[in-house]
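Sample 1 of the test manifest.
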Amino acid sequence: MGEFVMPQLGADMSAGKLISWHKKVGDRVQRGDIIAYVETDKADIEVEVFSTGTIEKFLVQPGEKVPVGTPMAIIQEEGKPPGAAVVPVSRPVPPAISVPAPIPEISAIPPRPTEGIAGPRVRISPAARKLAADLGVDPSSVVGTGPGGRVTIEDVQQAAKTRVAPPAAEAAPDRQTRMRQAIAAAMARSKREIPHYYLNTTIDITPALAWLTQENLKRSIEDRLVYGVLLLKAVALALRQVPELNSIWKEGKAVPSSEIHVGVAISLRGGGLVAPALHRTDQQSLDELMKNFRDLVQRARSWSLRSSELSDPTITVTSLGEQGVEAVFGIIYPPQVALVGFGKIVERPWVVDKQVVPRSLITATLSGDHRVTDGHRGGLFLTAVERLLQEPEKL
Amino acid sequence: MTKDELKGTVLRILGTIAPEADLSQLKPDMRIRDQLDIDSMDALNFFIALHKELKVEIPEADYPKLTTLNNCTEYLAARLVLP
């Protein structure tokens, strides 16, 4: 028997609110199945289960907000006798961090009268689900009028109108405020505990851009690449050469990550950001990376990310070039130990083969955790990124 | 399709890219990117949506010709051979 617990989806998460269960008691679940939909301060997340078995009991009902690590369901794992020692089956929770106490909030949704009665998975669009969360409507209680019984935005609006007025304690901070508080907590923690060092280098990106232009000429508009994909792949491959930057700080020491999951900083419309993972970034082709990157951005901005995407990043890449910034000296997102930044592409005179020529240049920076690496290794990493971008056809 | 209808289509697609924006305030001769805080991924999605809806090929080299509501409409109108 195992417990499915409220996962920690990033260093800035201390609690989460269950929006709905995607399974019901008695359902068999497989590792990777979406079991729940959870609201955090930064996004609404589809939470995956990390074991295989049968759901025996729900311990948390839609609308309840519980701290990270709280058992939410009991799962009878296959091959284990009922009543066996309780073993957490969710992804291991990263080391606790000193984020502020959870913001007091009284749920607008009354708990269900009995446990374990969640209905079948609710068919609902991300937009309607977000609206339901914003309005305090339990999607599983709404009768869908869309195709196949899908719950539409109109259904949610109608349900909100007919709902009994919520208690007065509704004046919790809005999501933007809570997101800013969460980011503030994680970044303050990072600056307090991580001795950052910073390196930067100027990279001649002319060959990469020329290759990209030619490559995109051959492609339909839907298959074109953006240059950011080249940067992500170069970073991922460079991490193979300096793997200690791809580590997680845990219990006082750096634990190397067995896989490279680059977290991509994505700004959200209206403010705030998230940095979900592109899993196994180094193993993806540029086409795969582009497809997945595009999907990730769209889902991040429609508040529809998956739990593993928020819990798995092993390093973060951020680019502020489009905002006109020349260099980014970022703050490491714990428990990661490095962050890579890229600035805008600038046209500058550059010396190539003893000739001054115009070139397209970009500034790459590394924020490193000095407990784990030093400037020497960091420098090797940035050099590797630069070298990889000189041969984009090999990425 | 008239130019006004075409402009309406462009605005509707922009509404899906920046759903929080009040497009009635969009200045037709100012850069869309600056007014709606659109990045390169949003821009690519915008071009792809235009392509799908209007069946117009938009080479990457032409992206700089679609920066404002007005030049965007003019470019597409020329491609669609509108009056």
